[in-house]
Write a structure and sequence with these properties.
Layout lengths: L20 E8 L5 E2 L6 E7 L2 E10 L5 E10 L13 E6 L3
Length: 97
């Protein structure tokens, strides 16, 4: 399988105070990855390899109040290594608007 889709739906108690600023970052895991749109509510993470990743989403409102949530993404090596030659994994992580 070439693509894996992973959705994250954090809930924030004070989401009605807009605008909201989003910031995704990797806090641990393999060094090979790319967060495509780190300042978007929804982003793709590409170029993943097997391993355990921790990603954090920080949301800040117009009153400079913020909340953080952390997600774990476990990328496992393919069962059939012959089919997986030169493959990487893509994940989509998402928060509600």
């Amino acid at each position: 399988m070439k693509l894996i889709f992973f959705l994250l739906f954090p809930v924030f108690a004070n989401a009605q105070v807009k605008p909201l600023l989003y910031q995704w970052r990797k806090i641990s895991g393999p060094s090979q990855y790319k967060i495509v749109s780190p300042k978007s509510a929804t982003t793709k993470v590409t170029n993943l390899v097997a391993g355990k990743y921790l990603f954090e989403l920080k949301v800040t409102n117009s009153k400079n109040l913020s909340a953080r949530d952390t997600m774990v993404l476990n990328v496992k090596p393919p069962l059939n290594k012959a089919l997986a030659k030169n493959e990487t994994v893509t994940a989509i992580i998402k928060s509600p608007n």
